[in-house]
Design goal:
two-stranded antiparallel ribbon, binds zinc ion
């Protein structure tokens, strides 16, 4: 009798072990399935990331702004044929600017006046022949003071660009001064008009072209009165980063003196 009672216990044990092994196997199989599923999910999300970043189309908003960024300085002459394609707007007297910059220039002047100041554009476009006249005058002045022609030319270049190398040839540079004091001196930086222009010109696409701390890069002495149109995008960047046009063109990898291609 006792023997018979032992048999079912063994069956229970065997049954329990078998059931245990089955459950364990099931757990292992299930966890394998889960890990495969997780892997698939990860690769799906990875590939969805890749496709979403492919969607951006940056180039669409890039309008051709190369005309606003033509560099003319002591090392970069006015591109050949540039002056022939200029269309002018007359401001007053003999002062003209490229018609393309006129609306924003006018707005800047209007807003400066609305702020209570009296700015006046004293110089705009200058032809290469006009610049030759100004440059020769400067050379003669030095020669009268005992300089050789060569020495006088070197000195004159510090104050007056050689013909073909003045930014005023572009029709996109203007000298602005207070109506009450039109002398281009460095202490004009203290006048209300110049202070306003320095703080606000970038909003209209203009930059202070020859800042005091960039003389070795621009090649021109500090000129608080000289403003150059470069467009709003470049003006904002140049102002925010406290750089000059030469540095901007280099940083952005914009090839310099390539304007001849658009003639
Ligand atoms: Zn100027």
């Amino acid at each position: 009798m006792r023997y018979h009672r032992a048999n079912p216990t063994i069956y229970y044990i065997i049954g329990a072990v078998a059931a245990g092994i089955f459950v364990l196997n099931s757990i292992v199989a299930l966890s394998n399935k889960i890990s495969v599923a997780l892997k698939n999910m990860k690769s799906v999300s990875d590939s969805s990331l890749v496709t979403s970043s492919d969607d951006s189309t940056e180039s669409e908003e890039e309008e051709d702004e190369s005309w606003k960024l033509i560099l003319v300085n002591s090392w970069n002459p006015l591109p050949d044929g540039y002056e022939k394609k200029l269309e002018f707007v007359k401001l007053r007297g003999d002062i003209w600017v490229d018609e393309q910059i006129y609306p924003e220039l006018q707005q800047m002047m209007d807003d400066c006046r609305a702020a209570g100041f009296r700015p006046i554009v004293c110089s705009g476009y200058r032809s290469t022949s006009k610049q030759k006249e100004l440059f020769d005058q400067e050379v003669k002045k030095y020669m009268r003071n005992g300089y050789s022609e060569e020495g006088a030319t070197v000195e004159a270049q510090k104050l007056q660009a050689r013909p073909g190398y003045s930014e005023h040839h572009l029709g996109m540079a203007v000298d602005i001064l207070p109506e009450s004091n039109q002398y281009p001196t460095q202490d004009q930086e203290n006048s209300d008009e110049i202070k306003w222009l320095m703080a606000n010109c970038y909003k209209y696409g203009f930059i202070l072209r020859y800042p005091s701390d960039k003389v070795d890069i621009t090649g021109i002495h500090y000129e608080p009165w000289h403003y150059r149109y470069v467009g709003k995008k470049a003006a904002q960047y140049i102002t925010e980063h406290k750089i000059c046009l030469e540095e901007y063109l280099k940083e952005k990898g914009i090839p310099q003196n390539t304007a001849t291609s658009s003639n």
